[in-house]
């Protein structure tokens, strides 16, 4: 099954939880914090999803 463009662009809580080996609830908290940072910078965010690019910049440099 091929990923859609949106799946390549955004990460959901289940993927974040798998990366950090944490609960889905904690993954949602991480996403909320990252999206709050993006909103302060003037970006529009989607609830329950985070930009893959921004996630990788913040956690993996």
Topology (SSEs and partners):
Layout: H1 5-9, E1 10-12, H2 13-20, H3 24-40, E2 49-51, H4 52-60
Antiparallel strand pairs: 1-2
Helix pairs in contact: 2-3
Report on the structure:
With 61 residues, the protein is mainly α. The protein has a domain at 23-61. 64% of the residues lie in helices and 10% in strands. The protein is built from four helices and two strands, in the order αβααβα. It has helices at 5-9, 13-20, 24-40, 52-60, and strands at 10-12, 49-51. A two-stranded antiparallel sheet has the order 1-2. Helix 2 (13-20) crosses helix 3. It is globular, with a radius of gyration of 11 Å. The protein starts with a helix and ends with a helix. The model has no long low-confidence stretch (mean pLDDT 92).
Question: Can you give keywords for this protein?
Answer:
61 residues; 64% helix
Give a short account of the largest sheet. Answer: 2 strands, antiparallel
* Mean pLDDT metric: 92
How large is the radius of gyration? 11 Å
Provide the succession of SSEs. HEHHEH
Distance between the termini: 29 Å
The coarse overall form would be: globular
Summarize the structure.
The protein has about 60 residues and is mainly alpha-helical.
